[in-house]
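Appendix C: a fully annotated inverse folding record. The material below is reproduced so that readers can follow the format used throughout the book. The structure is listed first as tokens, followed by the designed sequence.
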């Protein structure tokens, strides 16, 4: 089973690769740094590191994307659980349109249910009632119209140690798929950790990403809903109710009685989503190669970093992060 762009049920328009490639010259003029594999370097744009293929969409969105006031953006740095929160938001927002058995999430990888800004995926005029968009963009890199119009934003972050470990596994698998034979050249986990600690990761520095949305959420609490993956795990029901209120479709008394909240949570759980046929065996096209959808579902656990990083490494990253976040009111400490 393949979940290519043809099967996207919601996205109406995708920017052509020619339109995105127009940005190659601008990107090649940016400062460069080592990526996590020899075939991929990182480019510095507005203080953040990007892989060039994502940056094309970022620059295209900067120049062409015009948000509408009721658009909602689901933002996150990579590997913080956006597959999960996207699924929750999608199911909450579309629950009157589809029921459990007809939801596109049954047959489509969650990432294809919501347009992704960096791929130049936009709605046409007749978008859904709650137009959801997804992006990994840092707050200060979002298209101007998103901020100017005061669009709502849901932000998800995650403990940096688990985020790093998840990201390392993800990119190693991507490299093995799109550049077979190069996986041995992929950065070893200790070396990649050093780069992550220096801020050199896709959409990094990670702490700057978190801080940008954190500060914005303090300034505009009605517009930016800030979550941590660990809280979403611990207090899923409360978070889901908050999400529904934020998306302006709170659960009715009848829905509460019928167990709609619990059904949504169950449907979007790691066990349930990762066992759907489309997510187990389906594939997506990424840079002309098929990547297995199961790449988005690894373990879905809190604290898995302990299986890959030493206690000293964990402490080192914690210290860096807490120092960077100090004075902001945001912390990853329990
Ligand atoms: P691990 O690699 O630690 O298992 P993203 O969705 O932003 O790409 O992040 C991927 C991480 O979220 C992976 O973490 C993945 O397993 C986890 N994940 C995916 N779906 C999930 C779900 N429904 N519930 C909890 N975690 C999930």
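Designed amino acids, in order:
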């Amino acid at each position: 089973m393949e979940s290519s762009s043809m099967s996207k049920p919601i996205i109406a328009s995708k920017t052509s690769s020619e339109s995105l490639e127009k940005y190659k010259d601008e990107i090649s003029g940016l400062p460069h740094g080592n990526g996590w594999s020899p075939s991929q370097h990182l480019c510095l744009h507005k203080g953040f590191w990007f892989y060039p293929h994502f940056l094309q969409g970022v620059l295209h969105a900067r120049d062409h994307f015009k948000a509408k006031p009721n658009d909602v953006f689901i933002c996150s740095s990579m590997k913080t659980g956006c597959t999960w929160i996207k699924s929750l938001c999608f199911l909450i927002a579309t629950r009157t349109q589809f029921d459990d058995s007809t939801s596109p999430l049954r047959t489509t990888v969650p990432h294809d249910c919501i347009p992704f800004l960096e791929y130049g995926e936009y709605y046409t005029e007749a978008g859904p009632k709650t137009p959801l968009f997804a992006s990994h963009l840092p707050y200060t890199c979002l298209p101007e119209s998103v901020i100017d119009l005061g669009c709502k934003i849901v932000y998800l972050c995650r403990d940096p140690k688990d985020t790093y470990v998840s990201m390392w596994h993800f990119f190693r698998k991507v490299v093995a798929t799109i550049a077979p034979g190069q996986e041995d050249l992929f950065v070893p986990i200790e070396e990649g950790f050093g780069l992550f600690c220096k801020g050199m990761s896709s959409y990094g520095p990670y702490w700057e990403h978190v801080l940008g949305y954190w500060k914005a959420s303090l300034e505009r609490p009605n517009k930016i809903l800030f979550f941590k993956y660990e809280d979403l795990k611990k207090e899923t029901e409360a978070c889901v109710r908050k999400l529904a209120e934020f998306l302006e479709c709170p659960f009715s008394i009848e829905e509460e009685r019928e167990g709609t909240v619990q059904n949504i949570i169950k449907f979007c759980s790691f066990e349930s989503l990762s066992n759907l046929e489309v997510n187990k065996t389906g594939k997506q096209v990424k840079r002309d190669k098929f990547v297995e959808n199961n790449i988005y579902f690894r373990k879905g656990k809190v604290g898995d970093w302990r299986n890959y990083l030493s206690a000293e490494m964990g402490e080192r990253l914690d210290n860096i992060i807490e120092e960077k976040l100090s004075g902001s009111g945001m912390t990853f400490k329990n």
